Each structure stands twice: as structure tokens, then as C-alpha cells.
Automatic annotation (TrEMBL):
Organism: Sphingobium boeckii
One GO CC term on file: membrane
Lineage: Bacteria, Pseudomonadati, Pseudomonadota, Alphaproteobacteria, Sphingomonadales
Classification via InterPro entries: EamA_dom (IPR000620), EmrE-like (IPR037185)
Transmembrane domains' residue ranges: 32-55, 67-86, 92-114, 123-144, 156-174, 181-205, 217-237, 244-266
Entry keyword Transmembrane helix: yes
UniProtKB keywords: Membrane, Transmembrane, Transmembrane helix
Domain EamA, chain residue ranges per copy: 4-137, 157-288
The keyword Plastid belongs to this UniProt entry's keyword annotation: no
Pfam families reported in the protein's UniProt record: EamA
Protein's UniProt name: Drug/metabolite transporter (DMT)-like permease
Gene3D superfamilies reported in the protein's UniProt record: 1.10.3730.20
Length: 291
């Protein structure tokens, strides 16, 4: 359980940093080009890891086709979730979207329980506290919206819910079926390669009228690529422990991590609601450790 908690927290940390970098990367270079760089970087790094780790490569080549099929299905779930997330963000502010999307940990937990996983009561309380804390920390930023913003926020709800459901299914499939057979690296490689192909085709078919990417933007894009990749590897390694629900829920409070990092780096103010959400998360972590 300790390793599952550690990997879940690492994932939240990496993806929390990603939130800080991704906004600047997307504004400077566009969403599609940022995603292409992220996926290409992930394929290169993971390819090198597979070359170095011969044991991992052997495990991949001897894996049954069913595991590969599940990894591919999981990749499409993840890509669909990402596209739904960006569609929601196009309609509303981040603070209106993130609280709903952050509930993907609850989806994975419900799927794990429905599939027969036995989860003890303290662990359930801890998971609920962590999910509630993550949502509260992110939702508090959207409490002061005007009527127009509130209207757009309502329109974004179906897309946000879709993203949460698809992310929940993706992590459940990876943790339940793909990672135990393929290891922690191959499913992430499949996700990156599938995403790279889809985003590259989209860019080729639709075209891009954007200006050439300036040098400062590359730093944000490459930084985002590394942190996203590190987060996926961490969550896959955590799922290898068998505690899929725990790892996924802990990864979902990347938004509180972003809040804390923004306070440390940019001196952004932390509201009372955000502080309460962080306290809920700490209490949830204690329950998870006890459970």
C-alpha cells in the first residue's frame, strides 16, 4: 500500500506541474502542436527505456494479444477524454471544468468495486475525502462568475462529465488488465503512439495557420511533455501494485498540487475553501494509510 500511495502522490505532483506549464505551452504554440510534441517526446523516451530494459522488452514481446488490445482501447479512452476536456475548456474557465474532471478517481473506484475488489471502510472514507478535497480545492476558484460565464460553464458540463468517465475507464482498464501483463511502460507507449498518430493526422488534414513556434515556447512544450510522461509512468507503476483505486484517486488531486505550486511560485492567494480542501486531502491520506 505504501508504494501505491507514493506513486499516486508522485503522479499528482507531476501532473500538477503540468497544469502550470501546459497553459503557457498551449497559448504559445496551440493545443494540437503542443500535444504532438508531448506524444513524440514520450515515444522517444519510452523507446529508449525499452531498449535499455531488456526484461521489460521481453515481457512485451511475450504478452498475449488481448493485453495489447486492451491497451489500445484504453488509449482511445484517454484520447477521447483529452479531446472532451479541451472542448469543455473551450466553453468555460478552467475552474469550472477541473472540479468535474477531477472526479475520474471516483469512476475508477466504482468500477473496481463493481468488478469485485474488496475495499475496507477506512480506505473508502479516505478515497471519498481525497476526491471531495480535490473537487473543493478546484471548485472554489469558480465561485465568483458572472451570468455569461455561468452559462458557458453549464454548457461545458456534458463534456466535463464525459472526460471524467472516459479517464475513469482508461485507468481502470490499464490498471486491471494491461499493466499487470505488459508492465508499466508499454501501455503508456501505446497511449503516446496512438495519440501521436491521431493528432498528426488531425494537423495534416485540418492544417495550421499558426505562426512558427518561438524558442521560449519550446521550453514549456518540452517541460510539459516530460511531466505528463513522468505522471503516466508513475501511475502505471502504482497500478502494478494492484491498488488501482488508491493510485487513481491520489493522482486526481493534481489540482490542489497546482494551487500549492502557484502559491509557492507565483504567490497566488489560497482561499479558505482551498485550505479546507487541502485539509480534507490530508485527512483522506491518513485514512488510506490506515486502511
Amino acid at each position: 500500500m505504501s508504494y501505491a500511495i507514493a506513486f499516486g502522490l508522485m503522479t499528482a505532483l507531476f501532473w500538477g506541474v503540468t497544469d502550470l506549464l501546459a497553459q503557457r505551452a498551449a497559448r504559445a504554440a496551440g493545443v494540437v502542436r503542443t500535444m504532438i510534441v508531448n506524444q513524440a517526446l514520450g515515444c522517444c523516451v519510452l523507446g529508449l527505456l525499452l531498449i535499455v530494459d531488456c526484461g521489460q522488452a521481453t515481457q512485451i514481446f511475450t504478452a498475449p494479444l488481448e493485453a495489447w488490445a486492451i491497451a489500445i482501447v484504453g488509449a482511445f479512452f484517454g484520447i477521447g477524454a483529452t479531446l472532451s476536456l479541451f472542448r469543455a475548456l473551450a466553453l468555460a474557465q478552467v475552474a469550472s471544468v477541473v472540479p468535474i474532471v477531477a472526479s475520474y478517481g471516483a469512476v475508477t473506484t466504482l468500477l473496481a468495486i463493481a468488478s469485485g475488489d474488496q475495499i475496507r471502510r477506512p480506505l473508502i472514507f479516505g478515497l471519498i475525502a481525497c476526491i471531495s478535497g480535490a473537487i473543493l480545492t478546484a471548485a472554489s476558484q469558480s465561485s465568483q462568475q458572472n451570468a455569461s460565464a455561468a452559462n458557458f460553464a453549464r454548457r461545458s458540463i456534458p463534456w466535463s462529465v464525459t472526460a471524467a468517465i472516459l479517464y475513469g475507464f482508461q485507468f481502470f482498464l490499464l490498471g486491471r488488465e494491461a499493466v499487470p501483463v505488459l508492465g508499466p511502460i508499454a501501455p503508456v507507449m501505446v497511449y503516446n503512439l496512438t495519440g501521436l498518430i491521431i493528432y498528426a493526422l488531425k494537423l495534416a488534414l485540418v492544417g495550421s495557420r499558426s505562426e512558427p513556434i518561438e524558442r521560449p515556447a519550446w521550453r514549456y512544450m518540452i517541460g510539459t511533455g516530460f511531466t505528463v510522461l513522468a505522471g503516466y509512468v508513475a501511475i502505471s507503476a502504482g497500478m502494478k501494485t494492484g491498488h488501482v483505486a488508491v493510485v487513481t484517486v491520489l493522482s486526481s488531486f493534481q489540482s490542489p498540487v497546482t494551487v500549492v505550486l502557484a502559491w509557492l511560485v507565483f504567490r497566488d492567494r489560497i482561499s479558505h475553501h482551498q485550505a479546507a480542501g487541502l485539509c480534507l486531502i490530508v485527512g483522506g491520506l491518513i485514512c488510506i494509510h490506515v486502511g
